[in-house]
Specification:
Number of strands: 2
Shape: elongated
CATH class of the largest domain: Mainly Alpha
Radius of gyration: 24 Å
Order of helices and strands: HHHHHHHEEHHHH
CATH topology of the largest domain: Lysozyme
Number of helices: 11
Structural class: mainly alpha
Strand content: 5-15%
Length: 291
């Protein structure tokens, strides 16, 4: 066993007891370093925690109606019952009883075919808040490849005009729309064709869509409503994007167009996006496209 493997095993051993907070913290650090085995173990532990909380709530509801004089309802019995519930939670989690750990690994682990991890999704774009959706929304593209194949030829002229890689624009649009799966929709459920998350200001005299969104303020994400532009076609969205960048406040970003990370960083600083990790997320998608 190598030194690295020994270190990872120690992380797993430390976290074997779900009540060991130090071990769990150590395990989370290992998972953050890219250790898939540690991530899987951390996900299992978090699922167990969830199950324990659920069982505890159920027990508390039951205790309200319990007879305090019943010997089966003594503090000792409750103690052993809690230990038993803990074992049930651990057993369910180890066997992926609820499937939560698998979802956590999919979200936080390495990219998988046909699955977009949370790390590449923009946090201040239009999100599908189901509870607020008055109409049925449909994905604009069948899958990621259809998204790429459809938009690449549309983006190429604008990319050449701006002086940026075509894949950079594909990546930005992918982040803004969740690969076309979560495009902003108008009140009638029609796609806005808004590929770049451009909001409607007082100068915009076209159609608009007011939808729930997440914005960052002072580093804190908050849910709010925002009004976005609605275009009659994808081509119109791309053309308006080029005009949008012609604003004086984005000129510094345009001077860095040949360096995507700097370009999107400057866009973010100029107010295009509130997510402080905006550039990193787009570059992460670019690497997938280029790889």
């Amino acid at each position: 066993m190598t030194i690295g493997q020994l270190g990872n095993q120690q992380h797993l051993d430390l976290a074997s007891n779900i009540s060991d907070e130090a071990g769990l913290d150590s395990l989370k650090q290992a998972a953050a370093s890219g250790d898939v085995a540690a991530l899987e173990k951390a996900a299992e532990q978090f699922e167990a925690i969830f199950v324990r909380m659920m069982l505890k709530s159920m027990r508390q509801a039951q205790d309200v109606l319990a007879d305090d004089k019943n010997p089966m309802n003594s503090q000792y019995m409750k103690f052993y019952r809690e230990m038993h519930d803990q074992e049930i939670a651990n057993d369910l989690a180890s066997k992926q009883g609820l499937g939560l750990s698998e979802l956590i690994v999919q979200q936080l682990g390495p990219p998988q075919e046909g699955y977009t991890p949370a790390s590449v999704l923009r946090n201040d774009g239009n999100l599908p808040f189901v509870e607020n959706a008055p109409v049925q929304k449909r994905a604009a593209f069948e899958n990621e490849q259809a998204f790429i194949d459809t938009l690449t030829p549309i983006f190429e002229p604008i990319a050449n005009e701006v002086g940026i890689e075509t894949n950079a624009l594909v990546a930005q649009a992918a982040l803004e729309t969740g690969w076309g799966q979560y495009m902003v929709h108008d009140p009638l459920g029609q796609s806005s064709n808004n590929l770049f998350g451009i909001k409607a200001d007082g100068k915009w005299d076209g159609q608009k869509a007011n939808v729930p969104t997440i914005e960052y303020k002072d580093g804190i994400a908050k849910k709010q409503h925002a009004t976005f532009k609605v275009y009659d076609s994808l081509q119109s969205s791309v053309e308006d994007y080029a005009k949008f960048l012609d604003d004086d406040k984005y000129q510094k970003a345009l001077t860095q167009a040949d360096k995507p990370h700097q370009f999107f960083s400057e866009l973010q600083k100029a107010g295009y996006a509130t997510d402080p990790a905006y550039a990193e997320k787009i570059v992460a998608i670019m690497k997938r496209l280029d790889g």
